[in-house]
Structures are given as C-alpha cells and as structure tokens.
Amino acid sequence: MTTYFCYRIDGKVDAVSSILGKDKSQVNNMSEIDSEKENVMRLLLSGQQESIELGLEVANSLQIDIEAFKNDMNTLYDWVEKTRQWGESLSLSEKIVRLLSLPRISHSGQLGFEGFTPLDCIPPQIKYLLSLEVLALSFNHILELPVEIGYLRNIEILILSGNRISVIPSEIGQCQKLEILDLEETNLQQLPPEIGKCSFLETLKLKSNKLESLPEELGNCQQLRYLYLNDNNLHTIPSTIGKLKKLRSLQLSQNPLQTLPEEISGLENLEILDLQSTNLLCLPSSIGKLSRLERLTLENAQLQALPASIRELKKLKYVHLNNNQLTELPVGISKLRNLDLLDLSGNPLSIQEKVKIKSWLPHCEIRFE
C-alpha cells in the first residue's frame, strides 16, 4: 500500500509518495530508491521537526544510507556550537531543526582576547544553513572560504575581516542577496569577477589587503554605496567604476595609483573621495562632474596642479591637499562658496599665492602651515 505525506520547503507544500511499511527488498528498482532518497533528503532539510522525524523513519524503513548526512549535521552542529554555546543534549532531529533555522552566526573578537577561542575553518557543511542571513567571523584563524558558501542564497551580511583568506571562490557570485561583504585585513590577493553578480551589494570593505587589480565586473554592482580599498597595491582602477551610480564613498588611500579614469565622472552621487598617500600627479578634468562631492582628500600625494574643472564642485566642504607639489591653485576655486576647510600645508606656495587664495575664500579656514 502506498502512503502519501506532505513536506514544506520554501513555504510550499508538495505531496510525495513513500513506501512506509516496505523494506528495501520490496522496492522494485534503483530509480525508485533514488526517488525515495531524494524525498527523504528534502524532508530532512525542511527545517520542521515532524518532517525531519518522518524522513528518518522512511530512511530506516528503506534502509537508505544517510549516515554521511547524519555525520555532516553532527559536524556542523559541533562547529556552530562553538559560536553559540548551546550546551544542551539534543536528538539529531532537534539539532537539524535548530541548525536549519539559524539566521545568524557570530564569533568575532581580537586574537588573544580572554575567553575567545578562534575558529580555524568554515566547514563545507555550512551549505546546509539555508536560512542563514548573517555570518560574522572576524579575527579568527580562518584560511579558506569554502566553495559551499555559494549555497547560502539568503546570506545578506558576510564579515570575515582579520582572517588570512587570500582567495575568494567564484561561488561568492551565487550569494545574490549579499548586501555587506567585509574582507578587510585578510591577505586577499584577488577579487573574482563573479563579484559582479552580487547585484544587491551595498558595502564592500577590502581595506589592508594585497590587491593589485580589480575586476571590471565590479561595475555591475550597481547598488554599491560604500567601497573601501585603502592600503592595497592598486596602480589603476577599471573604467567600469563609473557605472556605480549610487556610490557615496570611495576610499582609495595608500595605493600606488598614478591615474584615475575619466569615467570617474559617472559617480554622480559620490560624497567622499579619499586619495591620500597615492602617486597621483594630476586629477582628470572629468572630476568636475562629481556634483555631490563634499570631502576630497589628497594629502601626501604627488599633485603638481589641480584641474580648472574643480570650480564645478560647488558642494565641497573639506579639501585636504597638504604635502603635495602645488605652486598655485586655479582661480576657479574661488567659486567654492561652501568650502569650510582647505588644507594646503606642506606645499611650495609663494607668499603672493597665499595672499591671493585668502582673498578668494574669505570665509574658509585655510591652512598653510
């Protein structure tokens, strides 16, 4: 006799057939066994106690070997328990329910912090945590991000700063709900092109790594608002950066940048541009298109002149140009009526030039020393 039961996945109820009451010898062919095994796995991953227990019952009835799955779930539970300190004795079905309903895993702290035991890996079994939305594991001993990260289709926040992850797998592109990705201080050497598939990404933190280039596909992350690239080995940035229309803050300090692409003019909502401690000799004339720019930081660069188009940056409030090679400023800077601070200390400006600049901006705090 065939018995029908229901299971719930992703909010949908589906009817599947089972052969409760039969043993493996009564199942006619291998395809039927495979079909039942698939149904059992769906039950076990439903996240509901009743369905999980039913799945275990069916598996035992048909002698379906699910030991590998059981081992995976116990391994995953032990790993997660390090971050949660549940400290309870639970049955396998109870463990599965608890794991599959987890919205957040957090185990972050400074290395050596009292009471903090660093994690040394992210197990591949993390692929089962389909409800996970936040994974925060900063300042651990993690060396690798497993390819199974791509199974986390609901992940929104991934924080891995302070680890030693030199490579990000291409499967990161499957995390299409990702909004915040923090990989600061991870020894990262390359960003995969698939990052461009993270279409909901708003914040990308890549400070203090070893990046020498950026993929052009980064320009496809058109929801990006905050991009932190400070302290890397970038000599150039791709022209596709101009496609990031919603970008508000671009941090590029402490990179050996020599030029910026003209396409930077596409950053029509940019408010903060940090280019301090770079090798820039000049700025592209298109910088005048950044009509919302409020803060421009260029201290400790190699600037010899500013483009005349700087006069178009009418919303500028803070400009840091200290320790460059400027001998004069364009007269158009007098048009910047909202300027509150102009730092020109450490530049070879003549006394006459300083007097002229002061007369142009009588209401602005100007620093020459």
UniProtKB/TrEMBL annotation:
<dbReference type="InterPro" id="IPR003591">
    <property type="entry name" value="Leu-rich_rpt_typical-subtyp"/>
</dbReference>
<dbReference type="Pfam" id="PF00560">
    <property type="entry name" value="LRR_1"/>
</dbReference>
<dbReference type="InterPro" id="IPR050216">
    <property type="entry name" value="LRR_domain-containing"/>
</dbReference>
<dbReference type="InterPro" id="IPR055414">
    <property type="entry name" value="LRR_R13L4/SHOC2-like"/>
</dbReference>
<keyword id="KW-0677">Repeat</keyword>
<dbReference type="Pfam" id="PF13855">
    <property type="entry name" value="LRR_8"/>
</dbReference>
<feature type="domain" description="Disease resistance R13L4/SHOC-2-like LRR">
    <location>
        <begin position="240"/>
        <end position="316"/>
    </location>
</feature>
<protein>
    <submittedName>
        <fullName>Leucine-rich repeat domain-containing protein</fullName>
    </submittedName>
</protein>
<dbReference type="InterPro" id="IPR001611">
    <property type="entry name" value="Leu-rich_rpt"/>
</dbReference>
<dbReference type="InterPro" id="IPR032675">
    <property type="entry name" value="LRR_dom_sf"/>
</dbReference>
<dbReference type="Pfam" id="PF23598">
    <property type="entry name" value="LRR_14"/>
</dbReference>
<keyword id="KW-0433">Leucine-rich repeat</keyword>
<dbReference type="GO" id="GO:0005737">
    <property type="term" value="C:cytoplasm"/>
</dbReference>
